[in-house]
Structures are given as C-alpha cells and as structure tokens.
Known about the structure:
Layout: H1 3-17, E1 34-35, E2 38-42, E3 46-50, H2 53-67, E4 81-86, H3 96-109, H4 114-132, H5 137-142, E5 146-147, H6 150-157, H7 161-164, E6 170-174, H8 176-191, H9 198-204, H10 208-232, H11 240-275
Parallel strand pairs: 3-4, 4-6
Antiparallel strand pairs: 1-2, 2-3, 5-6
Helix pairs in contact: 1-2, 2-10, 3-4, 8-10, 10-11
Amino acid sequence: MDTTLKAAVLAILLSICGCAPAVLMERPADLPAECQGRSFYHTPQAYIYASSPAAAGEIDRLILSVASQFPAENAVPAQKGLVIVTDVGDQPPFDLDTILSLAMRDAQKGTGTQPATQAAKALTEGRKELEKKGLNMSSLVDTAAFPITPELAAPRLAVEEATLQKIPWMLSMPTYGRVSRGCSALLRQMLNSPDISVGQKLLIAPMLVTLEPKMAEMAAVQRETVVFKVLADMQSDWSPEQRKAAAKAFSEARVRPFQLGLKDAVRQATRPAAATQPATASAPSSKPATEPAS
C-alpha cells in the first residue's frame, strides 16, 4: 500500500474513532458560540461549527492531514478558515437553491470567488443530469464539501458579513458518516430509477453491499481535495500555475486509488453473475456432423 493510500485510509479510520479535537483554543469574541445546533470549536487549524466533539475532531484531523502535505513551515494553515460541519442527523446548513442562485448570480457579475463559482457550476450541471434520471440532488450534496461565501454564511451565523470577510476561506463539510449515508441514498435512488430495467435491478441489488462502502470512501476522500485547493490558494509564494498544478496532482494521487478500488469492486461483484449465465447454445450447423462418403 503506497503512502498516499495509507494516509487516506488512516484519515478514514480516525474519523470513525470519534475523537474530539486534540487542542481547543478560546473563541474569538466576534464569532457566535453556536450555529444551527452546532457548537463552536476553535482549533489550531480552523474555526469549526459541529454538532459533536467527534464530528469537530474528524474535520480538524482532516484539515491537519491535508496541511501536512505542504512545506513544513505551512504544516498548520497560516490563514485560518471556518468550517460548518454536517453530521448524520444534522439539518443541512444551507438551502441548495439559495447556494446555486447566489453563486450563479456572482458568476454572471464576475464578483464571485473562483472556487465558489466552480462549485456552483458543477452542482448546477450535476443537478440537471440527476433530475433527468429522476434523482434527488440532496443526496449528492450530502456527500460533498464545497466553498461558502460570507453572504451565504452570515445569516446562519447571525453575524455581519464584514466579520466573515476577514476569514480567508470557508467551507461546508460533511462527516464520513454523512457521506456514507448520502452515497447509500443516491445508489438506492439510482436502483429505483425508471431508466433501469427489472433485470438490471436484480443484477445490481446484490452489489450494493460492496459498492456502498467503496463509493463512500471515494466521496469522502474528495473532501481532502477541496481542503487542499483552499490551502494551496493561501500559498502566497506560489504562482497561480503552481497552485493549480499542485491541486491537480494532489487530487489525482488521493482519488485515483479509490477510483480503482471502486472499479475493482464492480468487477468483483459482476463476475459471479456473469459466470452463472447459461452458455449460449450455438446454432445448429447446416451441414451434417459427418460428410457422407463419396
């Protein structure tokens, strides 16, 4: 197992352990103690709002793990961000329609931040494709980490936008449990899609036990790529090209092992079904089995 895969697996295992943040600091006076049922956790890595110490600890360790990929002097994010965490059982902090309408408005005006605009465009396109198949976008959003803006976050935190504008980056981030639940819901919606025949459903249903955890692992590691992107943007001594190249390399290194794992799970799950298919009888020959002697 290579180093990248080991680090990703370790992050997932730590998230399951349910440990609180190792270090907690005093809350800044201009940030509230609670947000939509989530308590405030101030760690060396970020300002975190989460519904439990375990959820806060999971995201804190994820950020620290990603930050360790940068040069030693930047092992802790130099510019602290804010993260609103959504765990299993939490209400989503943002309404999807509001997210998309604000981000697309800013994109059209040219006033939105690049990560937020890109995320909004991706979500919009994804929503269109899912709706064509009769699928609910909320399950996909449950699995995703994405940048948020001061305008979007200020009403939830009950603070002035000016306060949040001082914070260089902000994210909405699901826990591993939330990602897993979202993947499960999405797969089961897909199974019930009218585009899938009864025969296909019978083939796919037994595969869900294998596919759900693999899909969840891949979706969970995508959170790291979002964190890496915002931290790369904070590297003042990197050129835009260096930031883009580093983010691309990190994404490929992190996600590819899990993509391969998911593909392998699909192959393994479908192989027995293929092996049990009855052999197709060959058409009878128009010639006799033996030619008559001349």
